[in-house]
Specification:
Bound molecules: shikimate-3-phosphate
Number of domains: 2
Radius of gyration: 21 Å
Shape: globular
Largest sheet: 4 strands, mixed
CATH architecture of the largest domain: Alpha-beta prism
Length: about 425
């Protein structure tokens, strides 16, 4: 796919539903008693993998144009899948399901694509085993994971990494455990699981960085409206900030404080972003408007990292256009995402003429010179593809993206929306 440098981007757009919330809505809807109507669901490949896995465990899930309907089977109503549960490219499906499956009275096998088979699963296996789960993984760290029936008991567990997937896997297993389950986070990660548990009547308490769950009798189905994904909005926020003359609005974006690190960083770089029509339901939502402005470099590290972990590739693009040095540190988790995102972005930004250096836990980008465009690889990673597409809009010459179809993991209509804005 060829992407040409473009003139100002203008317009008001909506982007697809939040990926993290969409996964959780299906999972908790399946385990609830009653019917869950989900609006704004993300019809991306990852979330469809979650639906597929629950269908294989006997959950009736209906997809129409506007709604996903999940007929909950109750906490103990899942049935043994006949085949392996295939999670595709989705780390969230794999890790969260691992927690749920640990508490079932049947055996199961979890597996995914080549990227999933490389991603660390030891981080979930270890605490789940401490809870009494019986799990086998390749080298105790990789898919396929074999999970056998066992009795679980609650634990208190200090997370070695600030990971919402790990936290959620433990809390989901906690639904099936005898006694309380407590997790202690090193820094706040996204709290969608906790919020949804509360909405479904589960007793869960957050006290600073300590989260404690009481195993419930059952979960009560509630309808769920999924806000637009700030991780998808991020591509347009950066595009609007770096393409001269742009002004654009992304509507109904989820602005849960555990996800808004991107707004703090872009504003810290000098971006002009305003929030309108704020409302707060189970999750806070607003419209975000960005106007082009000159950006400058910034230091990014510490506890903000989990609040913008998925946005770091596109933040690196913003940094390439920002005057001066941007330092990203404490971001070693980026190496174990859908691709090694530090290596991928360093290599691809260099191809476009950006002065970028890979470090052990991040990168240093010396920006301010307009990149010249390039033939970009995506490493099969949706967010790398979309980040480089954004760079290409503001580059000096045309660029090519080798396998643009990978965007379908989280944003099937990404390129259409880009063109709608004038890209
Ligand atoms: C997610 C948590 C994040 C994020 C991923 C989705 C979730 O991963 O990178 O895209 O839905 O819980 P970690 O919490 O493992 O860093």
């Amino acid at each position: 796919m060829q992407i040409n440098p473009c003139g100002p981007l203008h317009g008001s757009i909506s982007v697809p539903g939040d990926k993290s919330i969409s996964h959780r809505a299906v999972m908790l809807g399946a385990l609830a008693s009653g019917t869950t109507h989900i609006t704004g669901f993300l019809m991306g490949e990852d979330c469809l993998s979650t639906i597929d896995c629950f269908r294989k465990m006997g959950v009736h899930i209906d997809i129409t144009e506007n709604e996903v309907t999940v007929e909950g089977v109750g906490l103990h109503g899942l049935s043994a899948p006949e085949d392996e549960l295939y999670t595709g490219n989705s780390g969230t499906t794999t890790r969260l399901l691992c927690g749920i499956l640990s508490g079932q009275s049947f055996s199961s096998v979890l597996n995914g694509d080549a990227s999933i088979q490389k991603r660390p699963m030891g981080r979930v296996i270890k605490p789940l085993r401490e809870m009494g789960a019986s799990i086998e993984g390749k080298n105790d760290n990789h898919c396929p994971l074999r999970i056998y029936p066992s009795e679980l008991c609650g634990i208190e567990y200090r997370l070695p990494v600030a990971s919402a997937q790990l936290k959620s896997a433990i809390l989901l297993a906690g639904l099936y455990a005898e006694g309380q389950t407590t997790v202690i986070e090193p820094a706040p990660s996204r709290d969608h699981t906790e919020r949804m548990f509360r909405a479904l009547g589960v007793e869960i308490e957050t006290n600073g960085n300590i989260i404690t769950l009481e195993p419930p009798e059952d979960l009560h189905a509630v309808d769920i409206a999924v806000p637009a994904d700030i991780s998808s909005a991020a591509f347009f926020l950066v595009a609007g900030a770096i393409v001269p003359g742009s002004e654009l609005t992304v509507r109904n974006v989820g602005v849960n404080p555990t996800r808004t690190g991107i707004l703090d960083v872009l504003r810290g770089m000098g971006a002009d972003i305003t929030e309108n029509n704020f409302r707060d339901d189970a999750e806070p939502v607003c419209d975000l408007t960005v106007k082009y402005s000159r950006l400058h470099g910034i230091e990014i590290g510490g506890s903000i990292i989990p609040r913008l972990i998925d946005e770091l590739p596109v933040i690196a693009v913003a940094a390439a256009f920002a005057e001066g040095e941007t330092v990203i540190r404490d971001a070693q988790e980026l190496k174990v995402k859908e691709s090694n995102r530090i290596a991928a972005m360093t290599t691809e930004l260099s191809k476009a003429g950006v002065d970028v250096e890979e470090t052990e836990d991040g990168m240093i980008i010396r920006g301010g010179r307009i990149p010249h465009g390039a033939m970009f690889e995506t490493y099969g990673d949706h967010r790398i593809a979309m980040s480089l597409a954004v760079l290409a809009l503001a580059a000096e010459h045309s660029s090519h993206i080798i396998d643009p179809e990978v965007v379908a993991i989280s944003y099937p209509d990404f390129f259409d929306t880009l063109m709608q804005l004038g890209g």
